[in-house]
Design a protein that fits this description.
- With 183 residues, this protein is α/β, with parallel strands linked by helices.
- The protein has helices spanning 7-18, 23-39, 41-45, 62-65, 137-142, and strands at 48-50, 71-78, 81-87, 93-95, 101-103, 116-119, 123-125, 130-131, 148-152, 158-159, 173-175, 180-182.
- The strands form three sheets. Strands 3-2-1-6-9-11-12 form a seven-stranded mixed beta sheet.
- A hairpin with a 2-residue loop joins β2 (71-78) and β3 (81-87).
Length: 183
């Protein structure tokens, strides 16, 4: 029996669930999530958006990365935290510590100007709680940012309850391929 009350038990369960799907299915679902993000009024009005380059088993945001109507930012993992850098058609990338393509260049220091942050996670619940991969990179960053936080996941990653600690930051909006949840 799977232990959903522990974060590690839930992470292990989600990892097994992810292995049941092909990359083409992940892409198809990702397209639906990107369409829903575009339909949000908070996205339409946002001038500066923090996205992420996805791991193969995460919601892929490539359809949003080349949006020239707003400033696109991407995270870089550095030691135990996230640094933020600009991303556009001239950005060069290198493979980061987690194997994710990360932008090269200067750090983006004006984090107060970020209007919207799209956040991946291992699991979410309908109360908009998020469980990440366990390193705390996003929670540390989100704790010092006032931007609207939009969690994204596949439908099978939505759980009845996600175990949370005092330092876990809830989302303002959650988007799956089939639904939207709002705080």
């Amino acid at each position: 029996m799977t232990d959903f009350s522990s974060k590690q038990g839930l992470r292990n369960y989600i990892k097994l669930q992810k292995k049941q799907y092909a990359s083409a299915q992940f892409w198809s679902w990702s397209v639906l999530v990107c369409e829903q993000i575009r339909s949000l009024s908070v996205y339409s009005s946002a001038r500066t958006v923090l996205l992420y380059n996805a791991l193969p088993d995460e919601v892929n945001l490539d359809l949003l990365l080349n949006d020239k109507s707003r400033q696109i930012l991407l995270p870089v993992v550095w030691e135990d935290r996230l640094l933020i850098r600009k991303s556009d058609e001239n950005t060069n990338f290198s493979s980061g510590s987690l194997g994710i393509l990360e932008p090269l260049g200067e750090d983006y220091m004006d984090i107060e100007s970020i209007d919207l942050i799209i956040v991946p996670g291992m699991a979410f619940d309908e109360k908009l709680n998020r469980m990440g991969r366990g390193k705390g990179y996003y929670d540390k960053f989100l704790a010092r940012n006032k931007a609207v936080k939009v969690g994204v996941c596949f439908d099978f990653q939505l759980m009845p309850d996600v175990p949370v600690d005092s330092y876990d930051i809830p989302m303002d909006i959650l988007i799956t391929p089939s639904k939207q949840y709002f705080r």
